[in-house]
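Students often ask why we bother encoding 3D structure as a string. The short answer is that it lets us treat folding as translation between two languages. Here is a chain of 327 residues written in the first language.
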Amino acid sequence: MSTLTRGPAPQDVTYTERRRVRGLAWLMVRQHRAVLIACAAATLIGALWMVHERSVALDALHAAGWPAKPRDDMGGAPHRIGTSFARVAAYLAYLPFLFGVFVGAPLIASDHEHGTARLVSTQSVPRMRWVLWKLGFALTLAVVTTGILGGVFGWWWRSVRSVIGTSWLDATVFDNTFPMLIALTVFTTSLGILIGVLIRRAVAAMVVTFFTSAAALLVADHLRTRLATPRRTAGPLGGEHPAVLSHGVEIDQWVGTASGKVYGWGTCVDDAAPDACRARLGIVHSVWDYFGDDQMATIQWTASGLLLGAAALMVVLAVWRARRQAL
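And here it is in the second language, the structure alphabet:
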């Protein structure tokens, strides 16, 4: 008689597979890990720095007697705070250029130059899907980084705006707070992507993007005051500024007649008899054009909408061109 020896009944073994980033998501993280680390570090360090500077500024102001004391009676504290604020704003102003030059321009151009685009196409990945992943990665990174930094910067500015004397229409505040910082960065990143798709050489695309972005941002800065209609107020000639100007941004000044006709501020100043000249013209008022504080959001969102619209157009052109050109 033979005895059949059977082993123990097989048991169901459940393997817990570690989740990890796969496919194109893994490729984006792997290929652009240096940019990811740089953006994460800049966001964390920048946000913590601004939180610290805000805390230091408020402590210094309270020690100097704010808000009971007026700004002119607080010694050098407002000047020091304004200097620190302007220094941080100067660093934030580089973000649109950095993203456009170092993220947008080489995003696709570098892959064409080094053959990565051709390699990806051989791995059963549709070209359109690869392009959309690249664009989504770059633009999401730009929005998250600048959204956090711009939000924290705006929070700091609103805490000390009555002391530092920097108007909201100044580029220091206007361009570096939410939503403008996001819109500017998305615009320059999209511009860099389009230039990179057209030139297909990373270094050349980076150089062209830098100068093109600088020119575009100068034009945008010039058009800022044209995005809303300024308000007008008047007061007696030679009198004090109207109280409404303390809650707004003065953009121009005139002299005017009782009927509402206005002349340039320098009218009759160089005349031999200024008073007689003004009497002859009927000038009796000082006139100011200004933007109210409640117009800040309107102007910022209008400018942001125009920039994001231009960015969307450039992204569409980049996708169309990337689909048609040979790898």
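Translate back mentally: The chain has two domains: 23-227+296-324, 231-293. Keep this in mind for the problem set.
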